[in-house]
């Protein structure tokens, strides 16, 4: 430093040397503590009086370096900062002021909290200096001999320089900068440039400072900050450049100073071009570019103006201005944009060739030449880059000052003189102009260059001219390659070639010029075509042979190498051999320089040729070995070049390099030999050899050997070696991470990081450690825990790389280090952390840790990075559950087969302990990291159970540490990062079960979070960016929102919510006013940022600063995570602002005990405008879709009501969260009765919402949310809403849409949810139908009815079929009730009702026809598809009959006109025609289904007894079908008789018998009796005399029917009367049939009555179906033996009894055989004790087609027969009738038993959803279970269960209901649903069994 003392303006070279010594010799050798002391020493040095400006510059530059290296500002330096560095801003030397600004910039990087204060101070000072008027005063001499004006001007320049420096780094600061500061700086800059001082001297300084500030702003500020004022910025250059130049300079007193100001203006314009006029801003390029070009044209005019004047003292200023202008032009991307200025620019740029004596030698070759050729000179790389810069330093006293706003600060001050800068820019711009000219222009420029070189020979400036020519031409060729706008002619190529070869031919030229010419020839070969390239190469090969000058030969050799490097290609492949042979001969030369250049050329050819060089590899290796063994091989440069040659060979051979081959051994030997001298360059090649093996030949050596070779290099004093070693280790980590785990290299890397001073190497080491952590931590987390523990907590100790690992493990820290750490890290509060002393973490001995390191403290930078690595640890271990589940981890440790036993959860105590100590340490920068790690621990281990304490979480034992960390983080003294992390951790703790049961801890946590709530609005950090305060506000309010949502989730899920959480509810209620206000403000700000829904100029946000783009970008990132939580919390239990508790009396809640609010308290009170904002925001969220939730990473605690929606809504993160999951629950909270009652919701708002839902694409899994919302609207909206056609239409469309969506789901995964949704949709549809007006109501009914029927016919699976049936089962009865009600009360105008019913009937007929067609298409075999279609057909038939019944009832309700009667009859007729078409179908299966449906309905009406109370609907309905039935019987016997046709014929007879039973006591009974008798005779006559078993069985059945028919008194009378009217022959035939039937029937009945005694009536014991089956089989054989013998004897008596029946008797008595008591037939039918009981049986078949005989007409002892006995006797009587038909199907008893039981159970479970409203058992219908254990009890007047005969033996076998449980058609009452569903399943199964072929049985 004494060298610089007393020298105000020291030589720049001396200053550079001093800086090098201070940095490399002193600063880099000091420990961190010594560097702190040295920092204070240098600061005090600035206060000394004898400190010259040069000393101040050097001191300030080293201070900047030390601050960057330390990473923090020591306290002792802060105390002297104001008097030293800040005071230097007013220094008289501009260089000192600039260095002071750079020092404060470095300080701001490590301590961002000072940025705001410094900028505010600088802006205030500038305003004060300008507004005080002092700059307007004349210079006053002060008492110290100085001037006050100069002092103030220096202060103004210093503050402006500081502002420019701070603005440049502000966007890169961790905590940002206040957004208002750039705007204030811009305002100051604009005032300085537009309203500067009238004092000329002050004006110069003021304008220069203004342009400096403007340049910094436009270069570094985000474009968004200035986009609104970009044209205002452009206008600032209009004054100096767009006006009259002469008038502008006429006002200037000092033209040189004014030119310096213009230079600053052009520099600012260059920054504007680079920031705003670039290819990425194509939209406004044209608009912004034109004024810029105009300004630059003005600058060219100034240059020509002053150049022609030749004014004194203007040369330096004009040179600077010219250089700045040329730099501005070069910054424009497309040089053709300023084509009009090309001529003037060329005149300027060719000046070094026009007047070579007036310009210096250019220094641009160093940057233009290829760095790979640097070993050839003149800038040979040294030990480190800093030394290389010193050796290449070429500064001057008039050199430029450092640019304070540029990222790349010059290494040494005044590194380039203005004159050298001018010639550099001229030549670079010359190259650009050369590339844009046509071939003629290029030749003109080339001729000028060539002429300059020739004319300058023998002149002192010849070397400079040659160098300048090389720079210009090299720049031009590179520009040509970049532009590629035209092809060069041969003349141009030849001219360039001759110029370069002419330069090479001059032996006195320097290496830089020769290298430039060689590289130029290489670029020329690339610009020419292949022919030119080959010709050029051959020409140079010929030159090598012919030339004699060693320098020229060496240059030609290098030119060949450059041609291969630049051009390569196929054209040169054939010349490789000749080129290598020629150059190899040169490499054997005794001339060292020629040898070096030849070897380097050979290297370039190897790298370019690739595999085509393989044949020359052996020869090249022998050449290298020959040179090594020569005596001249001692030259370091030769050794280095040989090493490069070997490395290039390894890269070419690659995987083909065998580990133990001779070739590989020779390569290693050569590398070992060249590196034996231990020179930096040769050792570098040795390390690079290892890197080449790792990259291209990993099989050549082991990872162990590589690491062993690299470790010593890690601690080399040469930065280039350290950098290469680290990069090679990184390649090893990437190539073979498994092998690297055992090397324990991480400790070495941390040691290197702790001592490294080079920033580039530091970044490389940090990225390598981070990558290695993520790779290796999966298998060894404990090792990383140990390393990080030592790095974070260690203090002073002798650092040995392997000290932390020994064979048996090692203590985390010894006693000394624990004691030393106490001053930095907090003690365990209240013994919360278990002591780590003596605890060991498993590790392995480091093989490579023997390198000694000096004694020092761990640097703060290293501690900080280690803490960051700790935050990566819980994530880096991967997703293996054993890392996070202690039970799995323990079992894995004991498992011998498991290779890994190191799990993170086993070291959770150490992890929490270390994180807690970091969070409470005295290093403020690390505290937030510790809290953040604890938050990550909460995420990873928050749900892990503690196996030692069942029912508890693992983290509960660390509750004290977690709560303590939060308590220390959330305090008034905490920094913003720490406070934000603390709020996040507190939220996670409260919303987990860690503190569950600890009321005190929960209250403390909530108090900590609530404490800042009152001050949140005024929260502000003046030193940081506004988004810092915004994020704190957001985190605080999000914490409250998360806790509220979590409490509500507990209220929703748990009946017994923990009391400690329940106590929070009143707290939320009391603070809901302020919370709601803030939450809504946050949401409004979010809409402002995302959608711009508010004016930027008039909107006053809650989050200050979001009007600025830089703030809004950061705030949006935070809001994206939490806005759903805030929105959700706002609406939970929200009420209108004027809501009162008394309003609950107005609510129409069905459950009077239901609490008004979920929490029992009202929360946020919403004004109408706030409600409408939330309403609109929710709709906007749905409209935007995933655009809003793409970045969301938040848990939605209070998800949609799954029970109501029927769909499980995922409560996950952004991968599963959708916009519907956010918006729909919010809308559900807003669609509440309070808001309807207070007028917040109108029909228009609801209509808009409904239309949005109609047209939105919402996933099926979220359908439940929409349906739940729709249900709320229908339930709570006023009835007046349904008067609006738009509202009614929209709500109907939405209901229909989701009906369609639900029916479309054919998969089984959503089956149960689909059933739930259908229940809700049916309820919604009912409410809509009842509330809407007439016209819309009928449309809805038609849609609801037609839609499921259409999906029914398209159902392809049982699940989809059952879903549709389930819905119809729920909705159709209600719709029919509605139709009945409307027909009864609106009988005057029922046109729409008729239209609906008519359409319904036609639809059913059409669908039935389609179903029949599909049945006919499928195979006749009974398969699943056929069964499904038959189920559908059965349903349609039942629905058709039900609809006909409805029409029948409606017709009877009102007084109809003749026209109405015709319409009703036509609808009724349409239904009967549908049934008629089915029973007359040619397909027997279809016929059977139709007959079964008719029988079922007839049996149901008969069992219910409804035919006795009013008109019999079935009698009327089937009356239309009697002719069809008789025709079907006739057709059956006319065609070929089969088993199936016989069954159909038999079904017809049974149906006719049922119709006859229904017609008793009616006028039509006689006609039906006659028809039945005719049908019986038809069958009897066809079966008589046949010996077929099937016909005999039918004949037997027919006889039994006749026998039962004639035993009915009324029927017997009608038969007798009709027979009297018959012809004699026909009567005789009928008598024969009756005689044959009566004899057989009486015998059978007599036998049956004696087989089974009646059970005791008092205990009502039940007779099992299995007993009847056994009795039936046994007795059948006995009866057959004597039946024929007795038949002839009894038939005469039977016939006599028949003849004695009275004729035309209305009421015929039945005589009891025991006491002769007479009972009238009508009385018997109404007697519940007799009829109701004996009509019930235990039949378990599926046909249910038995007749209804009158038991009272049997010869039974009525007075001794109990109801139970009567039932049993009737059962026996019916079994006699069953035997014939059951035998017929004895071979068809299919064991289709209960294989589908599970599916049946599944359906039962789905049916139980609506069990409250729907009866699952219908007592009026027969059961389908195998063994009915309980006899149904029937009340008087209710329907009775009618026992029917089974037509096949399957009546005794219970076929379990199919898994879809085919439901019955809907009836008029809810109680029919379940039993019908079971019944029709049995019906279809029975039909399938009856009519299937043998193969299907």
From TrEMBL:
Q: Where are the annotated coiled coils located?
A: none
| Acidic residues biased stretches | 1680-1696
Q: Where is the composition biased (Polar residues)?
A: 1701-1710, 1812-1823
Among SUPFAM superfamilies, the record links this protein to:
ARM repeat
Q: Could you tell me which residues belong to the region Disordered? A: 1653-1726, 1776-1835, 1858-1897
The UniProt entry's GO biological process terms, in alphabetical order, are: carbohydrate metabolic process
| Composition skew (Basic and acidic residues), residue ranges | 1786-1807, 1826-1835
Pfam families xrefs: Laa1_Sip1_HTR5
Q: Which domain of life is it from?
A: Eukaryota
Q: Which InterPro entries match?
A: ARM-type_fold, Laa1/Sip1/HEATR5-like_HEAT, SWEETIE
Q: Quote the PANTHER family the UniProt record gives.
A: PROTEIN SWEETIE
Q: What is this protein called?
A: HEAT repeat-containing protein
The protein's organism comes out as: Musa acuminata subsp. malaccensis
Q: What is the lineage of its organism?
A: Eukaryota, Viridiplantae, Streptophyta, Embryophyta, Tracheophyta
């Amino acid at each position: 430093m004494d060298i610089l003392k007393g020298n105000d303006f020291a030589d720049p070279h001396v200053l550079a040397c001093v800086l090098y010594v201070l940095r490399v010799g002193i600063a880099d050798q000091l420990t961190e503590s010594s560097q702190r002391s040295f920092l204070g020493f240098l600061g005090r040095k600035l206060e000394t009086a004898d400190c010259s400006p040069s000393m101040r510059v050097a001191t300030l530059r080293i201070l900047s370096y030390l601050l960057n290296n330390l990473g923090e500002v020591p306290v002792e330096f802060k105390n002297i900062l104001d008097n030293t560095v800040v005071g230097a801003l007013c220094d008289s030397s501009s260089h000192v002021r600039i260095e002071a600004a750079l020092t404060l910039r470095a300080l701001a990087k490590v301590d961002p909290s000072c940025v705001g204060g410094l900028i505010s101070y600088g802006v205030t000072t500038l305003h004060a200096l300008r507004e005080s008027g002092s700059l307007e005063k004349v210079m006053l001499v002060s008492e110290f001999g100085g001037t006050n004006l100069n002092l103030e001007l220096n202060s103004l320049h210093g503050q402006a320089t500081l502002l420019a420096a701070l603005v440049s780094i502000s966007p890169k600061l961790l905590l940002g900068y206040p957004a208002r500061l750039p705007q204030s700086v811009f305002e100051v800059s604009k005032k300085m440039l537009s309203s500067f001082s009238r004092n000329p001297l002050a004006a110069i300084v003021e304008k220069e400072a203004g342009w400096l500030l403007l340049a910094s702003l436009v270069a570094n500020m985000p474009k968004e900050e200035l986009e609104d004022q970009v044209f205002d910025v452009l206008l600032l250059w209009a004054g100096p450049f767009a006006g009259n130049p002469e008038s502008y300079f006429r006002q200037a007193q000092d033209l040189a100073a004014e030119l310096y100001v213009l230079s600053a203006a052009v520099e600012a314009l260059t920054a504007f071009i680079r920031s705003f006029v670039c290819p990425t801003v194509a939209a406004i390029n044209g608009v912004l570019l034109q004024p810029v070009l105009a300004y630059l044209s003005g600058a060219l005019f100034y240059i020509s103006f002053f150049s022609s004047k030749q004014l004194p003292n203007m040369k330096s200023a004009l040179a600077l201005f010219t250089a700045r202008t040329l730099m501005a032009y070069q910054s424009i991307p497309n040089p053709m944009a300023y084509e009009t200025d090309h001529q003037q620019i060329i005149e300027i740029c060719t000046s070094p060739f026009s007047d070579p004596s007036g310009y210096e030698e250019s220094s641009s070759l160093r940057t233009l030449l290829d760095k790979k050729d640097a070993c050839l000179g003149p800038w040979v790389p040294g030990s480190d880059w800093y030394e290389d810069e010193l050796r290449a330093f070429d500064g001057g006293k008039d050199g430029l000052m450092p640019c304070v706003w540029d990222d790349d600060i010059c290494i040494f001050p005044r590194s380039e003189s203005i004159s050298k800068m001018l010639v550099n820019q001229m030549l670079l711009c010359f190259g650009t102009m050369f590339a844009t000219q046509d071939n003629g222009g290029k030749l003109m420029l080339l001729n000028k260059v060539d002429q300059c070189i020739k004319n300058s020979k023998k002149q002192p400036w010849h070397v400079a001219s040659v160098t300048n020519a090389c720079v210009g031409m090299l720049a031009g060729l590179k520009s040509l390659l970049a532009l590629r706008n035209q092809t060069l002619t041969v003349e141009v190529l030849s001219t360039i070639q001759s110029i370069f070869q002419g330069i090479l031919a001059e032996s006195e030229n320097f290496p830089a010029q020769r290298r430039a010419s060689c590289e130029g020839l290489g670029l020329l070969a690339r610009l020419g075509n292949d022919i030119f390239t080959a010709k050029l190469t051959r020409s140079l090969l010929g030159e090598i042979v012919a030339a004699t000058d060693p320098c020229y030969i060496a240059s030609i050799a290098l030119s060949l190498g450059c041609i291969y490097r630049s051009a390569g290609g196929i054209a040169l492949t054939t010349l490789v051999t000749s080129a290598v042979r020629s150059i190899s001969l040169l490499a054997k030369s005794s001339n060292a320089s020629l040898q070096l250049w030849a070897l380097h050329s050979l290297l370039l050819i190897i790298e370019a040729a690739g595999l085509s060089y393989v044949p020359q590899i052996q020869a090249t290796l022998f050449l290298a070995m020959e040179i090594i063994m020569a005596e001249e091989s001692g030259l370091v440069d030769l050794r280095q070049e040989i090493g490069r040659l070997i490395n290039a060979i390894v890269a070419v051979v690659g995987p083909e390099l065998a580990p133990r081959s001779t070739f590989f051994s020779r390569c290693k030997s050569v590398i070992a030999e060249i590196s034996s001298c231990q020179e930096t360059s040769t050792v570098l090649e040795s390390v690079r050899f290892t890197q080449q093996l790792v990259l291209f030949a990993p099989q050549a050596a082991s990872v162990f050997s590589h690491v062993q070779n690299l470790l010593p290099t890690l601690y080399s004093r040469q930065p280039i070696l350290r950098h290469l070693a680290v990069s090679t280790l990184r390649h090893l980590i990437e190539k073979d991470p498994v092998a690297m785990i055992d090397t324990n290299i991480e400790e070495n890397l941390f040691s290197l990081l702790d001592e490294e001073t080079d920033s580039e190497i530091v970044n490389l080491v940090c990225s390598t450690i981070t990558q290695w952590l993520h790779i290796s931590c999966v298998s060894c987390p404990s090792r990383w825990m140990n390393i990080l523990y030592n790095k974070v907590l260690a203090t002073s100790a002798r650092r040995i790389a392997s000290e932390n690992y020994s064979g048996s493990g090692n203590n985390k820290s010894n006693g000394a280090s624990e004691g030393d750490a106490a001053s930095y890290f907090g003690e365990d509060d209240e013994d919360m952390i278990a002591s780590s002393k003596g605890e060991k973490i498993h590790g392995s001995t480091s093989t490579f840790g023997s390198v000694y390191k000096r004694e020092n403290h761990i640097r703060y930078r290293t501690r900080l990075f280690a803490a960051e690595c700790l935050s990566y640890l819980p994530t880096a271990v991967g997703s293996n559950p054993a890392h996070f589940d202690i039970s799995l981890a323990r079992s894995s440790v004991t498992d011998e087969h498991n290779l890994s036993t190191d799990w993170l959860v086993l070291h959770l105590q150490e992890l929490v302990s270390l994180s807690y100590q970091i969070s409470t340490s005295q290093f403020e920068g690390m505290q937030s990291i510790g809290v953040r790690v604890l938050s990550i621990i909460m995420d990873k281990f928050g749900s892990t159970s503690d196996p030692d304490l069942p029912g508890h979480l693992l983290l509960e034992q660390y509750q004290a540490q977690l709560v303590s960390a939060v308590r220390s983080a959330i305090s008034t003294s905490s920094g913003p990062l720490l406070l934000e992390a603390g709020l996040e951790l507190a939220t996670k703790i409260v919303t987990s079960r860690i503190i569950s049961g600890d009321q005190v801890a929960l209250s403390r946590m909530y108090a900590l979070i609530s404490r800042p709530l009152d001050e949140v609005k005024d929260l502000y950090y003046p030193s940081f960016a506004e988004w810092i305060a915004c994020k704190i506000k957001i985190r605080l309010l999000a914490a409250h929102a998360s806790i509220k949502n979590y409490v509500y989730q507990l209220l929703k899920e748990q009946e017994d919510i923990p009391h400690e959480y329940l106590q929070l509810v009143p707290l939320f209620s009391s603070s809901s006013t302020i919370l709601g206000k803030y939450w809504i403000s946050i949401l409004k700000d979010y809409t402002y940022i995302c959608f711009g829904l508010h004016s930027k100029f008039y909107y006053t946000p809650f989050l200050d600063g979001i009007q600025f783009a830089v703030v809004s970008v950061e705030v949006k990132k935070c809001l994206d995570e939490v806005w759903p939580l805030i929105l959700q919390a706002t609406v939970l239990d929200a009420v209108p602002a004027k809501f009162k508790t008394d309003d609950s009396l107005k609510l129409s809640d069905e459950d009077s005990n239901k609490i008004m609010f979920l929490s029992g308290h009202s929360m946020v009170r919403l004004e109408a405008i706030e409600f409408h904002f939330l309403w609109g925001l929710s709709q906007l969220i749905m409209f935007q879709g995933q655009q809003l939730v793409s970045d969301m990473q938040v848990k939605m605690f209070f998800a949609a009501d799954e029970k109501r929606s029927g769909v499980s809504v995922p409560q996950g993160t952004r991968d599963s969260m959708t916009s519907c999951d956010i918006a729909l629950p919010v809308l559900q909270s807003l669609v509440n009765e309070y808001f309807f009652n207070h007028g917040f919701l109108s029909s228009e708002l609801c209509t808009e919402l409904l239309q949005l839902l109609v047209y939105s694409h919402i996933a099926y899994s979220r359908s439940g949310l929409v349906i739940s919302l729709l249900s709320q609207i229908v339930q709570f909206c006023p009835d007046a809403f349904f008067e609006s056609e738009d509202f009614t239409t929209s709500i109907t469309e939405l209901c229909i849409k989701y009906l369609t969506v639900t029916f479309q789901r054919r998969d089984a995964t959503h089956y149960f949810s689909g059933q739930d949704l259908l229940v809700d949709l049916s309820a919604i549809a009912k409410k809509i139908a009842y509330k809407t007006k007439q016209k819309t109501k009928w449309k809805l009914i038609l849609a609801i009815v037609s839609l499921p029927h259409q999906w029914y016919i398209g159902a392809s699976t049982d699940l989809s079929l059952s879903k549709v049936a389930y819905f119809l089962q729920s909705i159709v009865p209600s719709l029919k009730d509605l139709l009945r009600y409307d027909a009864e009360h609106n009988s005057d105008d029922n046109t729409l009702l008729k239209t609906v019913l008519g359409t319904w009937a036609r639809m059913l007929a059409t669908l039935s026809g389609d179903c029949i067609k599909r049945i006919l298409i499928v195979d006749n075999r009974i398969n699943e598809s056929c069964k499904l279609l038959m189920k559908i057909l059965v349903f349609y038939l039942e629905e058709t009959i039900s609809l006909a019944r409805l029409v029948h009832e409606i017709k009877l309700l009102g007084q109809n006109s003749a026209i109405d009667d015709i319409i009703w009859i036509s609808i009724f007729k349409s239904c009967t025609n549908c049934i008629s078409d089915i029973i007359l179908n040619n397909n027997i299966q279809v016929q059977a289904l139709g007959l079964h449906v008719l029988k079922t309905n007839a049996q149901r009406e008969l069992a219910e007894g409804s035919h006795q109370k009013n008109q019999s609907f079935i009698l009327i309905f089937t009356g239309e079908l009697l002719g069809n039935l008789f025709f079907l019987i006739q057709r059956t016997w006319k065609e070929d008789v089969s088993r199936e046709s016989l069954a159909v014929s038999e079904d017809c007879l049974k149906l006719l018998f049922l119709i006859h039973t229904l017609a008793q006591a009616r006028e039509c009974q006689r006609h039906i009796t006659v028809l039945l008798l005719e049908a019986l005779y038809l069958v009897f006559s066809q079966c008589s005399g046949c010996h077929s078993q099937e016909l005999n069985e039918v004949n037997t059945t027919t006889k039994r029917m006749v026998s039962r028919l004639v035993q009915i008194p009324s029927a017997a009378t009608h038969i007798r009367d009709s027979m009297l009217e018959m012809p004699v022959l026909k009567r005789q035939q009928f008598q024969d049939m009756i005689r044959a039937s009566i004899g057989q029937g009486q015998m059978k009945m007599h036998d049956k009555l004696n087989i089974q005694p009646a059970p005791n009536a008092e205990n009502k014991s039940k007779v099992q179906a299995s007993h009847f089956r056994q009795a039936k089989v046994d007795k059948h054989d006995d009866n057959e033996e004597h039946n024929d013998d007795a038949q002839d004897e009894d038939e005469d008596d039977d016939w006599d009894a028949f003849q004695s029946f009275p004729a035309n008797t209305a009421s015929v008595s039945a005589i009891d055989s025991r006491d002769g008591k007479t009972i009238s037939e009508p009385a018997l039918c109404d007697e519940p004790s007799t009829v109701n009981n004996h009509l019930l049986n235990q039949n378990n078949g599926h046909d249910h087609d038995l007749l209804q005989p009158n038991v009272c007409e049997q010869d039974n002892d009525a007075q001794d027969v109990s109801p139970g006995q009567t039932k049993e006797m009737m059962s026996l009587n019916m079994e006699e009738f069953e035997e014939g038909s059951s035998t017929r199907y004895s071979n068809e008893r299919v064991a289709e038993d209960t294989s589908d039981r599970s599916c049946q159970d599944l359906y039962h479970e789905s049916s139980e959803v609506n069990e409250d409203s729907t009866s699952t058992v219908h007592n009026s219908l027969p059961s389908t279970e195998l063994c009915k254990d309980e006899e149904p009890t029937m009340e008087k007047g209710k329907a009775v269960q009618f026992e029917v005969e089974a037509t096949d033996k399957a009546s005794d076998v219970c076929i379990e209901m199919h898994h879809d449980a085919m439901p019955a058609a809907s009836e008029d009452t809810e109680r029919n649903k379940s039993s019908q569903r079971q019944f029709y399943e049995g019906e279809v199964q029975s039909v399938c069994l009856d009519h299937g072929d043998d193969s299907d049985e």
